[in-house]
Every structure is written in C-alpha cells, then in structure tokens.
Amino acid sequence: MIKRNQRVFNAGQILLDGLVVCVAFALAYYLRFQSGLFAQEAHLPLVDYVRNLAIALPALLVIFYTRGLYDSARKRTLFREIAAITFSTLILGLLILSLLFVIKQIHISREFIVLFLLFVVLFISLERTLLRVWLRQIRSRGYNAKHVLVVGGGELGRSYIDEIQGLPYLGYHAIGFLDDDPKKQEAEYKSVPVIGTLDALEDVLATHPLDEVIVALPLQAYDRLATIIADCEKYGVKSMIIPDYLRYVPARPDFDELGDLYLINTRYVPLDNIFNQIVKRIFDIVVSLVAIIVTSPIMLTSALLIRLGSPGPVILKQTRVGYNRKEFVIYKFRTMIHQPKQHSDTKWTTKDDDRRTKIGAFLRRTSLDELPNLFNILIGDMSIVGPRPERPYFVEQFMEQIPKYMVKHQVRPGLTGWAQVHGWRGDTSIMERIRHDIYYIENWSLLLDIRIMFMTFFKGFVNKNAY
Q1: Domain end residue (candidates: 109, 125, 140)
Q2: Residue 122 lies in a domain
Q3: pLDDT at 365
Q4: Which of 54, 101, 367, 389 has its CA 20 to 30 A from that of 266?
C-alpha cells in the first residue's frame, strides 16, 4: 500500500536530508577555515561547531516537517518545494542568530553561518530535484502508483481521468468508475471501466487496495456525499471531492469561517493575509529607498534634459486608479509636450504619437520615465511589483468591456508586473494583460516578486511596445 511506502520513503528522506545538511556543514567549515579563501583568525575548535550542528540539524528537520516538506509532494510544484526549503532555512538562520545573541556566543563565525545556510538551500534543493526526477521516472513505469476509484462517470470524473493520464509521472492509476446511470454500466472511458453503481462502493472498498476515492458527482447527487464519506472512513480510505460548483466560480476559491458556518471566498488572494501584506510592504520600502539612492543621478540628469528640451513641468502628475479602486496621483517624468489635462487623461499613446518630445521618446522606450513611481511606492500608493495602474477614463471603459478587469485593484499597483515582463504593455491586448495580472494576484509570493524584478532587468525595461 502507498501509505506504508510513504512512511518508509519519509524516513529515508529525513535521513537523506540530515546527511545533506552534514555535507553542507563540512563544506562551509572547510571553505571558511581551511581553504585559504578567507582571512585566517582565531576561531573556536571544530568540536564547538559540531555541538551547534547537533542543535541546528534537528531544529531544521522539525521546521521542514512543519512546512510540509515531508508530506507527499506528488502534486506540489518544484518551485513551491524550493520556496519552502528556502523559507525554512531562513527561519533556522534567524533562530541561530537569536540564540547566539542570547547566550552571547560571539566567536561563531558569521561567514560560516552564511555559507552553511546557503549550502543547505542549494544542496537540499538539488537533492529534492533529483529525487523528484527519479520518482517521476519510476511512476511513469507503473511503480509507486496510487490506486484510486472515481465515484461519478460524468464530465467531472472524465476530466479527472484526462488529467491523471496526461500526467503519468504523478503515478495515479484509476481502477474504475462507479455511476448510477444505466447507460454507463459496463462502458469505459480511456480504458477505465464503469465497475458498478454507487451502491457498490462498500464492496469495492472491501475488496480492492485503494489509496483514494475521488468523488466527482454533479450537484444534484450531493445527497449521497454523507454515505460515500462514511463508507470511505469505515475502511480507512481517503476521500477527495471535486466540487461541481467550481464551474460557477471565477477563480481558485478559499474557505473562511463565520461561527459554525463555512464561507467560500470565490477568489484566493494571498495578499489578503496581514502577514503577507507586512512582508510585501517592508520589501517595497527597502527596495524603493535603495532604488531612489542608486538611480538619483539618472533622475537628476533626466529632469535637467526635460527642462532644457521643452517648456512645462518636469514631473507629470496624473490621476490613476489603485488599491481598492481608490484614486491616487502618480508621478512620472513628463515625456510629451505640455498639453491640457483632458488630453493627457483621455488619449491613448500611439506608436507615431507626435506629442512626444525627443528626450521623452527615449525615456518611454527605456521605461526611465517611470522612475518617479519609486516615490509613490515609498508613500504606499504603489508597490514594486503589481498590476500597472490605469487612468480613471479608461478604467470606466475597460470594466464594461473586459471581463474581470477590476480584479486587478485587489492589490496595490506596481512599477513592474507579471504582464509587463511578458511583453503585455503599451498598445497590446488588455485581455492578456488582465489574465497575467490575475495570475500574479492569485499566486503572489515574495519569491515571485523577486523573480519579476530580475526578469524586469533583463527584458522589462526596454520594450518594443513602450512608446
């Protein structure tokens, strides 16, 4: 059974993780104290470092456990697994530094700690990647399979079969369907047969070594759920429900509680979490302050060239729609000839727009005109990463014409975003832009923000659609 195999696998994975951490410790110690790459100084003997490892190693394994890194990773993406490894190691680093501060052990090398934590992330991530490749190979050959029964042979049940057969490396094997439709009896779908009606569930559970029962019933059959779940629990088999109502829900839902009631939030937004909000805000403040300092010579030079190039203000102040649909004033370098407010607020920029100044065309093409957005980020109107904000005149049009357009206002607008680094900026498809913005909103993480920042440096600043 897969449960017994999973326990054995988890025990082996814990031992392997422990071994990899020891390798990271040995390499960090060698590089810091014996390789000659660092200035040699008096340091504690190896036995003191090993004594600290004896505390750090179990702590890290416990953190890994609490972060779900010893749960089945069959359906978890590699990116999420590496993110969990990185976050867990950062927690360990904070615990180590806090402990050293409390016990006033000042002679432990900080360079060693940094090297050790870095190697832990790199080596554990490499180990999990290789392990994932190996597992996918053996599952594709039929080993380590999870045997499932699908209750419901209609559209939902068949969609489930499509998914697991399209992803053979996940290792799911469906033994059959149960369905009450007489027309489906003794039929099959993609070599998966209908082996009985819903009343046969208990017999199937008693005679087949199942790992999961997938309930894929239409809404009108939900009165059978209590019996199905009770039968599964009687035989100790996990039951999972594919909710039929999801076809009416616009996005990945989330569950909330009100007393004894469960509420379905039809769109999961990670940044609704207060902890995530604080993390992102701190990140925005730090990055915007650093960016303002680093780019101040560029901003001063740009301001001087704008002033010399054409009459009018250096900074363009324009109303945009931001977080929770509230309007705010965005700051940009002026890139066009000075014009009445009603023109700048209601006219879309085109490729051969004759309103652009010479320096303005360059600033727009290189996105340098958006550097004053850093001050909007610092004061809290914007974020480093997020959907780009739009003018109220166009928002009113798009909310009627573009489905889900207003979802973008559930987070702070950004200097750069998932849509922009994929080329959806300027005079391009608003539909595609919103699709990318919604993906970002529903999948936010600090690592995703960092990834978008790096992508911006390589392909987000200069764009053929920025004019």
Answers
A1: 140
A2: yes
A3: 83
A4: 389
